Amino acid sequence: MSSEPKEKIVSFSDPRSPYAEAFRTLRTNLSFSGVDKPYRTILITSTFPAEGKSSTCANLGVVMAQAGQRVVILDCDLRKPTQHKIFNLTSTIGVTNIVVSDMKLDQVAQPTEIENLHVVTSGPIPPNPSELVGSKKMAALISTAGEAYDIVLVDSPPVVTVTDASLLSTMVDGVLLLVKTASTKIEMVQESKALLERVNAKIIGVILNQVDANGSNYYYQYYYYYGDRDKRKLPGVAM
Known about the structure:
Blueprint: H1 10-13, H2 18-33, E1 41-46, H3 53-66, E2 71-75, H4 83-86, H5 95-101, H6 105-108, E3 110-111, E4 117-120, H7 129-133, H8 136-148, E5 151-155, H9 164-169, E6 174-180, H10 186-198, E7 203-209, E8 219-225, E9 231-237
Helix pairs in contact: 2-3
């Protein structure tokens, strides 16, 4: 059991904060963007490591569960997994056990302190992450999770550094791309977008992280767009 504090789950520890409200706004925007066909399996990735995609995934899962939806987070970052640390869970079994050892989802999914929210940690880190991530068994896992839960959030490695996110993007309904504005160059964001579009991934939203608007360190504006439709400026979060 990890001893790392849960301060990254601000939507749970401080539900009245602007951080938590921004995640609820994101939850609402996602529901509106999928009116005709709801997005039930969503991949959350970033351009590079350390941009906040894992904590964003965790906080989004929390606010969705708080709204009464049955949510599961799959930690498919089989290179540098963090969901077990964020939620203070063990990671002795997880995604890799389901893919390699044919364990069942209900044997591996762990409950959290948040009602309606389960987490499937990465499990043992494999020597061949891309092979496991791109396998039919991984696709079957995501499909099974989509049948068992209302919402499946998939935490993946960054897009540019490895192929895992591109492989996973073909197995979900849509992708949220998180960008750390303070350090990520626009050319790299464009490359991430191109890599995802190359495999026909559906990018349903882009979240700009760590934008300091009007001198504020915790509340900012990010651009969130729906597929090929118009861009809309909406409130977001800084992690």
